[in-house]
Amino acid sequence: MDTLAGASGHRSPRRDAEPITAPFPQALIDAFRARPEPPAFEHRSRVLSRGEVLELIGRCADGLRAAGLGPGRSVAVATDVTPEGFALLVAAYALGCRVTGLRPGMSPPIWCTSFPTESTSWWPTRPVPPPNCWTRRVG
After folding, report:
1. Is 61 helix (H, G, I), strand (E, B) or coil?
2. Is the pLDDT score of 100 beyond 50?
3. By the 8 A CB rule, do 85 and 73 touch?
4. Rg (CA), the chain
5. 71 burial class (0-12, 13-18, 19+ CB within 10 angstroms)?
6. N or C terminus of the chain: which is more exposed, having fewer CB within 10 Å?
7. Domains in the chain and their CATH numbers?
8. What is the pTM of this model?
9. pLDDT-derived band of residue 76, with 50, 70 and 90 as boundaries?
10. pLDDT surpassing 90 at residue 95
């Protein structure tokens, strides 16, 4: 057993250095798993525990995987600041996707000039159509 490795299994190349913590989002996921009871979000009248947020992250990751997304794939996420939006972003990062967060309300011409149509998947967290310039939609 490597005694210099942290909980994530990562270790500094220097033998005398402290363990390297896991990169985002794994360190966050590990912390939520270690203590699932405390609140993670207070959003409007809802309070979600860390465990509930982990469940959301898992469901989002399942959906992204089912759509064929994974390491190196580009995904554009249009979301408000909500627990669901947070879970979707964390899930995409955890799968190794290249993530771009879009502000809801951005005009389609801005989307069309910012993102290539053939390599970016569109994932809104509320029902809105993808920009007309995009020829394919995942999700």
Report:
1. helix
2. yes
3. no
4. 18
5. exposed
6. N
7. 26-124 (3.40.50.980)
8. 0.70
9. confident
10. yes
